Amino acid sequence: MKRSPKPLLRGFLTGGPPLSVQVNDKAGVLLMAGETGHPTYYLDTDDIDASIAAVRELGGKADDKSPVPTHGWFAACTDSEGNAFHLWQADANAG
Asked: What is the pLDDT of residues 21-70, one digit of tens each?
């Protein structure tokens, strides 16, 4: 497994050192040490506002975007079946 080069995936959440896997240049998976349940999936987007709108239009739920100062924007989402995932847009000016 390859550790993600993105600092957000390595250190954004607390609770122990995470194991992150970059699936490709547009997706990653985060597994937190000591946590049970499911991994957290991050899907990279060039336009988080359009992606949030698309999730909602297709029957899913998406929170409004939140800044991670100096890194980017994220939004927690669920698809129409209730499966959780997150959207991520890199932006050094976020915040």
From this structure: 555 666 666 666 666 666 778 889 999 999 999 999 999 999 999 999 99
pLDDT score at 29: 67
CATH among 3.30.465.10, 3.40.630.30, 3.10.310.10, 3.10.180.10 for 7-90? 3.10.180.10
Please provide the DSSP assignment of the chain as one string. Answer: ----S-HHHHHSS-SS--EEEEEETTEEEEE-TT--S-PEEEEE-S-HHHHHHHHHHTT-EEPPPEEETTTEEEEEEE-TT--EEEEEEE-TT--
Confidence at residue 14, expressed as pLDDT on a 0 to 100 scale: 37
